[in-house]
Every structure is written in C-alpha cells, then in structure tokens.
Write a structure and sequence with these properties.
The chain is an alpha+beta fold. Helix content is 53%, strand content 22%. The protein contains five helices and five strands; from the N terminus they run αββαααβββα. The longest helix is centred in the C-terminal third of the chain and has 56 residues. It is rod-shaped and about 110 Å long.
C-alpha cells in the first residue's frame, strides 16, 4: 500500500486540475481563489472574478435564496447539493450544483460545484412534454365526456320516439 502524501504542492495540483469548479471565498463574499474550471465555465478572468462580490455573478432570480442559504452556511450549516444559476460573461446562464463548507477559524468558504445545465435543460424538456401530454389527456377526456352526453341524449330521444310510435300503433290496433 502506498503512503498518502499530503503536501501543499499535491493539493495545489488537485485544485488546479479537477474539472469541477472549485472556489475559496472570504466571509466578505469575495472570491479569494478559483481554479481554471471556474474561469473556463463562466468566461471571466480570475481578476474579474476577484474584483466583484460573488453575488454579482448569480442570476438575479436566484440571489435571495442563495443569500439565505449562504447565511446558514456562515452559521455552520454545510451546504450540500444546492442549485442556482450564474450569469456567464457572454450573458448566458449556467446551472451549478454546490457543496460548500465554512471554515470559521480561517473565515473562508470552500466550495465545489458541478455544471448541471444539461440536466436542467433535460428536466425542463421532460416537464414541458408532461404538461403537453397532460393537456392533451384533459382535452380527450373532456371530448369523450361530451360525446358520451351527446350519445346518451340522442339514444334517449330515439328510444322515446320509437316508444311513442309503438304506443300509437298499439292504440290504433
């Protein structure tokens, strides 16, 4: 069995080479360190990312919930599989799923994210198809009910007319 090596250099290699987005942010809400995956995914340079608060990169519709979750994180609650959207430099959106911890004695947040944009697009497509089929099913059910009522009325009227004719024939006889 090989002994585990935990040198700072090897941790740096892992940080730099992983395809996941890895960030270190300060308690103040500014990024302190990001790996190349972050800059590649969001399209900003590291300097651009460090110059603005993290919240400025979050899609406006997700800022409130992200702020609430961040507050819990800073009070010691680990963040696991939290999903939100970020605005890329080109204006497009990317869905990220975060796992983060707050290291209180260093006042930093260590966060790892995966790009789940494709999964979210597939979920949206499935949801849209479900809504379409549900709408069609409702339409067909309503149509069947209307046809059933129509046939019931027609059948009732036809039988009533036939019964009247038979009654008249019997009276005539």
């Amino acid at each position: 069995m090989f002994p585990l090596k935990t040198t700072e250099f090897e941790m740096f290699d892992l940080f730099e080479l992983t395809p996941d987005l890895v960030c270190i942010a300060g308690r103040d809400g500014f990024l302190k360190k990001v790996n190349p995956a972050v800059t590649q995914k969001l399209g900003y340079s590291a300097e651009e990312l460090y110059a603005r608060p993290v919240s400025s990169f979050i899609y406006p519709g997700d800022r409130d919930i992200t702020g609430q979750v961040r507050s819990k994180l800073l009070h010691g609650e680990a963040l696991i599989n939290f999903q939100n959207r970020y605005v890329r430099k080109d204006g497009s959106l990317v869905w990220l799923e975060w796992t983060s911890i707050y290291i209180a004695d260093k006042e930093i947040v260590f966060a790892i994210a995966k790009d789940i944009t494709q999964r979210k697009l597939q979920e949206k497509e499935i949801e849209d198809k479900y809504k379409k089929f549900k709408s069609l099913a409702t339409h067909f059910k309503k149509s069947i009910e209307e046809d059933r009522k129509f046939f019931a009325v027609e059948l009732h009227e036809e039988l009533a007319q036939l019964a009247t004719v038979v009654k008249m024939d019997i009276q005539w006889l």
